[in-house]
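Aim 2 progress update. The chain analyzed this quarter is reproduced below.
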Amino acid sequence: MKLLNEIIYLFEYKKDGYTKQGGKLYYKNPYGYAVYRFQAGILSKNIIKKIRWIARYKGWIEAFHLKENILNDTLNKIHLKKCNIFIDLLTNLYAKHYSSEYKEKKKLYNT
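Predicted C-alpha cells:
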C-alpha cells in the first residue's frame, strides 16, 4: 500500500442527489439499470450470485417489456445455459416484484 498526500477527488453532497434520486433514476432509465444488472452478473465470480444477477436482469427486462438482444450471448459468456431452471424460476419472481413495485412508485416518480 502506498500513501499519497494529494487530493484525489472533491465532491459536494447534494440533498437531492443520487442517493435520494436512485429509485427514481432506475424507473426513468430502465435500460441503464438493466445494463447495471447485466454487468453485475458478468463480473460476479460466484456462480450463485451470477444466477441471481442474471435472473434480476431478465426479470427487469420482462417487467418493463424491454427489447433484449444481448442475453443469449451473455449467458454463453458466463457459462450458463439459456434455459437454466434456477434463472427461469427467479426471473418470474423478480419480474412480478418489479412490476408491482413500479406500479406503487409510478405516481411518486411521475414516470
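The two ends are 46 Å apart (CA to CA). The mean pLDDT is 78. These observations will guide the mutagenesis experiments scheduled for the next reporting period.
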